[in-house]
């Protein structure tokens, strides 16, 4: 209740920037509620499929045709994968046969490289793609 009163106070004498923050926060709350409602409805529809198989499943009821794409998320336990692979025949141990080893950037080492040797960093940059991520914003209003 206190935050609602503070919000009313803010909107009474708000600058355009403050009003934008208020509208943004309202949109965030509406989006979260919509996501929850969509997920609940999707789960309800998914329950109409008995024993779905991985991949596409079709259910036709009257004029309605529902297609459920049943997904199974799988991940490899990095702590045990090498030990387990050693127990398999060579055909399945080969790199890429069952497990794809993906390179990932060690950001702290990259920053150290940039600080130490810009020329070497530019060499490494030839295999690096950098794109801007979505910004993160936090806003708070001081009490009046």
What does it look like?
With 144 residues, the protein is mostly helical. Among the domains are: 1-57, no CATH class; 101-129, no CATH class. It is 48% helix and 10% strand. It has helices at 2-12, 16-46, 81-86, 90-93, 107-116, 118-124; strands at 55-61, 64-70. A hairpin with a 2-residue loop joins strand 1 and strand 2. It is flat, with a radius of gyration of 26 Å. The model has no long low-confidence stretch (mean pLDDT 88).
Give the key terms.
48% helix; flat; 144 residues; mainly alpha; 2 strands; two-stranded antiparallel ribbon; single chain
Present the secondary structure layout.
Elements: H1 2-12, H2 16-46, E1 55-61, E2 64-70, H3 81-86, H4 90-93, H5 107-116, H6 118-124
Antiparallel strand pairs: 1-2
User: In which order are the strands of the major sheet placed?
Assistant: 1-2
Beta-strand content bin? 5-15%
Give the averaged pLDDT, no decimals. 88
Helix count, per DSSP?
Answer: 6
How much helix is in the residues? 40-55%
Following the backbone from N to C, one meets helices and strands in this order, namely: HHEEHHHH
Q: Radius of gyration over alpha carbons?
A: 26 Å
**Gross morphology:** flat
How far apart lie the N and C ends?
16 Å
